[in-house]
Amino acid sequence: VQLQASGGGLVQAVESLRLSCAASVTIARVYFMGWYRQAPGKQRELVAASTSAGVTNYGDSVKGRFTISRDDAKNTVYLQMSSLKPEDTAVYYCKVRVSPWATDYWGQGTLVTVSS
Length: 116
Fold this sequence. Notes:
There is one protein chain. This protein is an all-beta fold. Helix content is 0%, strand content 53%. It contains no helices and 11 strands. It has strands at residues 3-6, 9-12, 17-23, 32-38, 45-51, 56-58, 66-71, 76-81, 90-97, 104-106, 110-115. It is globular and about 40 Å long.
């Protein structure tokens, strides 16, 4: 499984940005797809996740501002980020787990920088 994340960049606070993660596998029945982020000096944290059961989860700090979605025809998962804050600055990674017992696959990360 290969994942190609893109869409990061430098934006100002309150602006929006959309990240994309293109997968090399059919994602229609993938067990788990998610976005994580890691800021300098901090641990990697869950931002948003989507499961094959249709469940979505969000980190507390992004609820109401970020939305995860997927386009099965393009084998791509998106992260729409709105009302960005400087504290959202981090490298964002996408992760895929094909089945509950499978290994995790990570994308290469895309840097998001939010200026105040």
